[in-house]
Write a structure and sequence with these properties.
- By secondary structure, this protein is mainly α.
- The protein has a domain of about 60 residues.
- The protein is about 55% helix and about 10% strand.
- The protein contains 3 helices and 4 strands.
- Strands 1-2 form a two-stranded antiparallel sheet.
- Helix 1 runs antiparallel to helix 2.
- The longest helix has 20 residues.
Length: about 100
């Protein structure tokens, strides 16, 4: 008997061109946020506030470092900065 072994199981499925579902939903949310800013404020404020926000969202969607997405890099960095890194090993001498 021959069985097909699935390959590339660590790659997410794409739904729209090269975008995964998570990337597509983040892009839609960013567009809705900018549309809300456009509706509520003047153009200079939308450019001032929306520009860096869109840049950060686009970076988090498309930039990968060593095949790891940027949000995972930032979460690993944050955990490294906040968790203690000094461990003391005490040998159990009761035995």
């Amino acid at each position: 008997m021959n069985f097909n072994v699935p390959q590339f199981i660590d790659i997410e499925d794409t739904i729209l061109g090269p975008l995964t579902l998570k990337q597509f939903l983040l892009l839609i949310a960013a567009g809705a946020f900018i549309a809300l800013l456009w509706w509520a404020f003047k153009l200079w404020f939308v450019i001032l506030i929306g520009g860096p926000i869109i840049a950060a969202i686009l970076a988090s969607i498309f930039i990968k470092i060593n095949d790891r997405p940027l949000p995972k890099i930032f979460s690993a960095w944050f955990n490294f900065q906040t968790k203690p890194r000094f461990y003391i090993w005490k040998k159990d001498t009761k035995n």
